[in-house]
Amino acid sequence: MTDTIFSSQPAPAALARNALKAAAQLWFVVATAGLWMFTFYIIAYFIVPIIQNGLGSLANTHLPKGFVPGDGVGNLAVGVHVFLAALVIGGGPLQLIPQIRDRFPRIHRWYGRIYMVTAVLISLAGLYMIWMRGGAFGNTVQHIGTSVDGVLIILFGAMAWRTAMARNFTAHRRWALRLFMAVNAVWFLRLGYRFWAFVNDGSLGNMEVLFNILSYAQYLVPLAILELYFIAQTRGGVGGRFAMAGGLVAVTMVMAIGIYSATTGMWLPRLS
């Protein structure tokens, strides 16, 4: 049936559609590799020490107020945040692979519920850490930017759940992808400033200004690219789809540089 549809289309239209699909798949493969590298780092740097030595091991990490003696609730919030982050960052890409979704629909549904609930819990823990515990990097501008992402995660999670329950799977897919982008904003932020350091010979310049920008760009830029992809996929003509495909390839190259720089310049050195 698919072959019939493609054969009935003009050659340029079919080529543009295939180019957009291939560019999206390339982006996803590179992103998945980077997310799994980040997950490995979270497990090795945070979770294994917590399992071995308890929450007190957070005192030996780069987190500000990772562990505060006597602050049982705060320390638990940080620990929960770390464990759940590994769960959603590492497992999220699996929800987007059609072969897994189609072959194991029950697993897809149940992990989807776990993913959405976990994402909300992470956001609530993160908001507590920022505004109640004071255990976050940056200034108020950056805290507001990060908090907006937390609110978006809760909103997108609710909409993804609602559309799934209504069996509106087209809308559910879009809200799930928006949730995926918002959940991984912390990863995009790291890629952003490591890419900036890479192209500037290791210099971050004015770090306060850079992080003021990245605190919002970490989710606004991925979400904007996603919306443009939706438009190109559903309403874009031949030129629009080719342009979007080229844009995705360029974004993927930037992302790959960020992943390389973050892995070799930040994550692996902390594990050595």
What does this structure look like?
The chain is mainly α. The protein has one domain. The protein contains ten helices and no strands. α8 packs across α9 (207-235) and α8 (185-199) crosses α10. The relative contact order is 0.13.
Summarize the structure.
This protein has about 270 residues and is an all-alpha fold.
What class do helices, strands and sheet pairing give? mainly alpha
Largest sheet: none
Count of DSSP strands:
0
Return Rg in Å.
20 Å
> Can you tell me the overall shape?
globular
Number of helical elements: 10
Mean pLDDT: 87
- Unreliable runs: 1-7
Strand content: under 5%
Tally of discrete structural domains: 1
Task: Provide the succession of SSEs.
Answer: HHHHHHHHHH
| End-to-end distance | 53 Å
Give the % helix: over 70%
Keywords:
83% helix; 272 residues; transmembrane; 10 helices; mainly alpha; disordered N terminus; transmembrane helix; Putative membrane protein DUF2306
